[in-house]
Design a protein that fits this description.
3 copies of one chain form a homotrimer.
Chain A (H helix, E strand, L loop, with lengths): L2 H8 L2 E3 L8 E2 L9 E4 L16 E5 L9 E5 L2 H12 L9 E2 L4 E2 L4 E2 L4 E2 L4 E2 L4 E2 L4 E2 L4 E2 L4 E2 L4 E2 L4 E2 L4 E2 L4 E2 L4 E4 L4 E4 L2 E4 L5 E4 L4 E2 L4 E3 L5 E4 L4 E2 L4 E2 L4 E2 L4 E2 L4 E2 L4 E2 L4 E2 L4 E2 L4 E2 L4 E2 L4 E2 L8 E3 L4 E2 H12 L1 H26 L8
Parallel strand pairs in A: 2-3, 3-4, 4-5, 6-9, 7-10, 8-11, 9-12, 10-13, 11-14, 12-15, 13-16, 15-18, 16-19, 17-22, 18-23, 19-24, 22-25, 23-26, 24-27, 25-28, 26-29, 27-30, 28-31, 29-32, 30-33, 31-34, 32-35, 33-36, 35-37
Antiparallel strand pairs in A: 1-5, 20-21, 37-38
Chain lengths: ~350, ~350, ~350
């Protein structure tokens, strides 16, 4: 493809040579002559002058004259993704149809063009929507519904009575619908509380590898439309996650907490149970959220507080040695003053009251 | 069931209409007319006036006159759990017997009424106790013993020589008996140390999804009777956990650490290796424990310290801006005083010594 | 074996009775008469006097006269590991050959003496090196290459196009090559960015249980020779880890971060994306690394900073109550002084400027 052809596909404006031929795709650091790359993260803007790429997809506000041809677009990530989907390696495909080794229970409803891979185990009364792929060794429990055009990677376990929407992607090793962690403790002994609720997952949800999403004690744990969950995340019983929220790797959300829409929860953050996180909030990496967060708030740290407040306290904390120095100097000055006053006043030092 | 019938089952005292008919179970926020709910967490007490439930199981000290009928019991969670077990959806059942696709090694001892589901792999010399269920695709390594009446969910991996007690529940994706993480480093190269010990798990233990419990270097990693472990927990080689301890999601316990009985370790806490956590201690969420903790202690924060000490330091930390302000005011006052003293005394300001 | 025979195997110097017969191996706390133990961690040196072991492998600088025979060596861990490998329980073995239940795709190249266990699924064009063991239910995706003499435990999932070196060990439940977590967000909706890169793993790498290592957006996520990764670790797309680095349990490394050689990353630490960690650095447990770390640096805390700086700030933080007390006393003294000065000077207190 030429630079001009690429610009047409992504609806971009070319600055520089349109006729260059592009032979590969790469990151801005690794790109070689003949390759196309892009800049999405502002941090990488200085690399524009250093890259060996022949063409770079850039945000509209970049128009430096550099040796590479530039293709200006509104969203470089999205534009580059489009080209990757066209020019990248052929995605792996799975035969449609049910592999003879798959174990299919009674009264299972399987849609059109479904692929069920080797050693999948589908229990009674499961429903699988049109066009979905069930990977090798996947386990799907009784009464669970997989929506259409979904991709369930190998070794996912989805227990009974889970309801899932369309175009859901679940990566390997993830467990949906395990029992919520609930016990009634009597004289130091913990008695299991039945977890009779379920999990409901909306449309266009993507869930990473080795994630755990527990079923509700009653009612349901809920993952809204468009939610994206990274690897090794823990979502406890009865959690509610609003649509288009992003949950980064190793986050933990405790029981019955409600997370709003379009929230971003960065890696390794933890959220306590029974609280509410407002829409459009951002929770920083490793933050520990211990109380309700209003909408449109950016919190960081542990205990999590307003980002600017947290930065200010962090800055003060770093300056502690300086402040302690000041206290010491003040003590010395006051002692010296005391002596002077004594000279003048002819009495012992002023007492503390 | 009527309110009276429910009260009889849980041994409770009714305040209000005993004859009401209950048609469903729910949480206190979501409950509708005709439903039964309960209050266990004090945080939800104010909702008693707002709930639409027709009956509420409450602790004995709640006797408000509200529109709902109240059923007073000692432990509302436990009482509600009893009703859920009776009135909830029929639990999923697995046929007993060995599925023809299961691979069973030599000299395997299988008790009465055992269910082994499709594609389970049971290696040589394994022993499985009466009444246990081995889920689909479960792997059980050589010489391992599963006790009676246990429930091993699909895709659990238990490696060789692990010993497990009765009534153990293990949720999907958990790995028991992986090698401890041990290397001897010689000139920067890490040589594997054989991990020839094992894991021993007591009776009535429940282990969540995608947990990892490593085998010991020698001797054993030990999980006491009645211990409950949540999802994505890491338990390293040679850890000892005393009975009835609770380990919440994403906790990590490093090698050779000894945790006492009836300890609670809250979510995402980390405990360093080779230390001792006393009986009945509580370790707060996200705490980082770096040294021994005496019995009956509540620690929080990182590095973890006594909860009240930690709260006090946190409070001081929040008030830093105020203290720094005070320092600034003191500096100003002293400077002003210095000038006054100079006026009186007719000399340069007092020097620092 | 006698103490003398053991000393010969490990190349050690005996202090004490060489003729003692050793009947077992154990940790220093648990050891009984007749057993051999060792001291590697300095913390356990005081136990040398208390151990009931008959012989102890010790570092060369220990020569106390105690009742046990000592065997002095340079690296006691390594020496003890040698004896464990000889005297420990026979390791579990797997038949070589392909189990008839394994599903093998087209154009798969399988080396000599390979063992493929029940229900493994090997997709088209996979290559498996000589002497490797593929555990039960392992899934290996299209075009992936497993090197020679590797041990892939049950229930590992390795997706397509992953390249792995020789002598790699992967523990159960680990997922290699899941999609990187990348989305382009347009008006609040997250569009998936294809992840067309792969994962490359060097020789002599060991990876724990339930780890997740994502494939690159393009190019590759890279794990260098001799890297050792513990359980439940998250390694995001395009991360680069230099050789012989150690990554302890529950660590998370965000996208495109470069970790040098011989780095140690302790448990539950988190590293943000797009940064560089220099060679030979140490990152403390639970540290949160937010910016580049130079080589040979030891950082701790969150945000991570130089260990000594962090300890100093922690110490100051603990002394806050004391400093605040000092401020209060200064305020009182100054007020008292102000009164005195007023007496002398006959005017109102000095003003703040």
């Amino acid at each position: 493809m030429t630079v001009r052809e690429i610009a047409e596909i992504v609806g971009g404006v070319v600055i520089g040579d349109e006729s260059l031929s592009i032979t590969g795709l790469s990151g801005i650091k690794e790109a070689k002559e003949g390759e196309l790359t892009f800049i999405a993260n502002n941090k990488y803007r200085p690399l524009l002058k250093l890259t060996k790429a022949s063409a770079v997809i850039v945000p509209s506000d970049i128009n430096n004259s550099v040796s590479a041809s530039l293709i200006q677009v509104e969203n470089p990530s999205l534009a580059f993704a489009k080209i990757m989907a066209i020019a990248g390696p052929e995605p792996v495909t799975f035969k449609s149809g049910i592999d003879p080794t798959a174990v299919i229970g009674n009264d299972v409803i399987i849609g059109k063009n479904v692929s069920i891979q080797p050693y999948a185990v589908i229990e009674d009364k499961v429903e699988i929507g049109d066009g979905s792929i069930i990977g090798a060794c996947v386990y799907i429990g009784h009464y669970t519904r997989v929506g259409k055009d979904s991709l369930i990677y190998p070794h996912v376990v989805i227990r009974e009575r889970v309801l899932m929407g369309a175009r859901v992607i679940i990566h390997p090793g993830t467990v949906i619908g395990g029992d919520g962690f609930g016990f009634a403790t009597v004289k130091g002994v913990h008695h299991k509380i039945p977890q009779i609720g379920t999990v409901e997952i909306g449309d266009d949800v993507e869930i990473g590898s080795n994630v755990t999403i527990d079923r509700a004690r009653f009612d349901k744990t809920y993952i809204g439309n468009g939610v994206k969950i990274d690897n090794l995340v823990q979502i406890a019983h009865n959690v509610y996650i609003g649509e288009n929220t992003i949950v980064v790797a190793q986050v933990g959300i405790s029981g019955s907490t409600v997370v709003g829409r379009n929230v971003i929860i960065a890696g390794q953050a933890g959220i306590t149970g029974h609280i509410t996180i407002g829409d459009n909030s951002i929770i920083g990496g490793k933050a520990g959220v211990t109380k309700n967060i209003p909408p449109n708030t950016h919190v960081t740290g542990f205990p999590a507080r307003d980002k600017w407040e947290d930065m200010r306290l962090q800055a003060y904390s770093r300056r502690q040695p300086e402040f302690i120095d000041k206290i010491k100097k003040l003590e010395e000055k006051i002692e010296a003053m005391g002596r002077k006053i004594k000279d003048i006043y002819g009495e012992e030092e002023p007492e503390n009251n």
